[in-house]
Design a protein that fits this description.
About 30% of the residues lie in helices and about 20% in strands. The chain is of the alpha+beta class and about 140 residues long. The longest helix is centred in the first third of the chain and has 18 residues.
């Protein structure tokens, strides 16, 4: 079975964020970092070489594949900021109030914080943190893509 590429590392989160070349994306990353620190009460950790995560949990799929991953996190990608919130986040009622965004199964992509309502984003991060490993996510089974 293939080994997970995304693992917690000892790399410096601040060094990583300081290396983000775009000043606006770097500032937005620090703002998201502060939101997640406030919500989780935990220190951030690097996962792989480009993701900042908080907390961790062990998962195991029916296929037998298993591993560890952070509960909530983000990554300042070249074209957008990816926030890893919770599986099925697209169905949360707050998504209609968030603002300009795109996303996949569990990652929310935004160009910049100014495009979204930060209070709504904060609530979504908070929901993701509270439901991430506890099975309290009513939207998880609703994912269709």
């Amino acid at each position: 079975m293939a080994e997970n590429k995304t693992k917690e590392t000892d790399a410096s989160v601040e060094d990583f964020l300081d290396s983000v070349p775009h000043e606006g994306k770097r500032a937005d990353s620090y703002r998201i970092l502060e939101m997640m620190k406030e919500i989780t009460g935990l220190p951030p950790k690097m996962w792989g070489d480009a993701m900042v995560g908080f907390g961790s949990y062990h998962y195991k799929y029916a296929s037998g594949h298993e591993g560890d991953i952070f509960q909530v996190g983000f990554s300042p990608r070249k074209s957008y900021l990816s926030l890893y919130l919770f599986y099925g986040y697209k169905f949360h009622p707050l998504m209609k109030k968030l603002g300009k965004h795109k996303g996949g199964k569990s990652c929310l992509n935004i160009n910049k914080l100014a495009d979204v309502d930060e209070d709504v984003l904060y609530e979504l991060i908070e929901f993701g943190w509270q439901s991430s490993a506890g099975g309290n996510n009513p939207y998880a089974k609703m994912e269709t893509c």
